[in-house]
Amino acid sequence: MKKPQTLLVLMPEIVWGGAERQFRYLINNIKVDKIAVVCPHSYAKQTNSYATNEINNKNAEIVESRHPVHSKINVIIYYLCEIRKLLKEYNISTAIVYEAYGCYLIPYLKQKGVKVIYSERNSGEGIVQSKMLKLFVGKSDVITTNSLAARELLRKYYKQKIFLVKNGIETESIKLKPDIENANTILVPARISKVKNQMIMLRFLKKDTDFKGTVIFAGKTEDADYMDELCKYVEQERMHDRVDFIGFTSEMELLYQKADLVVLPSFVEGMSNIILECFARKIPILVSNIEMNTFTDNLKKWSFDPQVPDELVELFSKWVNLDLKEKKCILEENRNYVLNEHSLKKMTETYADIIEEIG
Question: What is the distance between the terminal CA atoms of the chain, rounded to a whole angstrom?
Answer without folding.
Answer: 20
